[in-house]
C-alpha cells in the first residue's frame, strides 16, 4: 500500500523572532525522497537520513511563517502527502510557563495522568505539545489540566506547553521546559 508520512516541528510551538525550529518529515520507507512545500509552492528537495528528512529554519523572521507540507516521491511519482504544519514566528512577551505532570514522569500503563501548564498571567490560555505530533491540545484557562484517564505506551514522549493571550493582539510566551513521559 501507499506509505504514510508524518510531519512535525522540533521543537514544537510558536517560535520567537530570530529563533529556530526544524521541520521533520518521516516515512517508513527509505528508497525515495521528500519534497518540501510552503503554502503549496515547492521550496526544496530534502535528503533522506534513514526514513526521515529535516529542514532547518534559523534566525526566523515573519517570512518563514506559513503552512509546510512534505510529498514523498519515488522518481517523479508522488507516493504520499503529509498533513500541513503551521510555522508561526512571534515576539514573546509573556512569562515562560511551567509544565508539571501528576503523579510523575514515570507511570504504569493504565494509570491516570494529569498535565498542568501554569503561567503567571490571569487571562492566558495554553497549548500542550507532544513532540512528533502535528496537532496541539488546547488548554483553555489559566491553570488548565489535560487528563489522560488510562495512559498507554502511545502516550509516551516529550511534552511541553506554550501560552498566549487572546486579546485583539495575540501575545505569546516561550515554550516551557520539556517533560518526558515514560509508561512502564
UniProtKB/TrEMBL annotation:
Alphabetical list of PANTHER family matching this protein: MHC CLASS I NK CELL RECEPTOR, OSTEOCLAST-ASSOCIATED IMMUNOGLOBULIN-LIKE RECEPTOR
Entries under InterPro entries matching the protein: Ig-like_dom, Ig-like_dom_sf, Ig-like_fold, Ig-like_Receptors_ImmuneReg, Ig_sub, Immunoglobulin_dom
Protein name in the entry: IGSF1 protein
Annotated Ig-like domain residues: 3-86, 95-162
Short name of one Pfam family: ig
UniProt keyword annotations, A-Z: Disulfide bond, Immunoglobulin domain, Signal
Gene Ontology terms describing biological process: cell surface receptor signaling pathway; immune response-regulating signaling pathway
Amino acid at each position: 500500500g501507499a506509505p504514510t508520512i508524518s510531519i512535525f516541528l522540533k521543537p514544537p510551538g510558536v517560535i520567537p523572532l530570530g529563533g529556530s525550529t526544524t521541520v521533520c518529515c518521516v516515512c517508513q520507507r527509505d528508497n525515495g525522497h521528500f519534497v518540501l512545500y510552503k503554502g503549496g509552492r515547492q521550496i526544496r528537495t530534502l535528503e533522506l537520513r534513514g526514513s526521515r528528512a529535516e529542514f532547518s529554519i534559523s534566525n526566523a523572521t515573519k517570512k518563514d511563517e506559513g503552512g509546510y507540507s512534505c510529498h514523498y516521491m519515488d522518481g517523479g511519482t508522488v507516493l504520499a502527502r503529509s498533513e500541513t504544519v503551521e510555522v508561526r514566528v512571534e515576539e514573546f512577551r509573556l512569562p515562560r510557563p511551567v509544565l508539571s505532570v501528576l503523579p510523575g514522569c514515570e507511570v504504569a500503563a493504565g494509570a491516570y495522568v494529569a498535565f498542568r501548564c501554569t503561567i503567571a498571567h490571569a487571562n492566558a490560555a495554553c497549548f500542550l505539545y507532544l513532540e512528533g505530533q502535528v496537532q496541539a491540545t488546547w488548554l483553555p484557562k489559566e491553570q488548565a489540566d489535560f487528563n489522560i484517564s488510562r495512559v498507554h505506551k502511545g502516550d509516551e514522549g516529550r511534552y511541553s506547553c506554550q501560552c498566549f493571550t487572546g486579546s485583539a493582539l495575540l501575545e505569546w510566551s516561550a515554550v516551557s521546559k520539556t517533560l518526558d513521559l515514560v509508561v512502564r
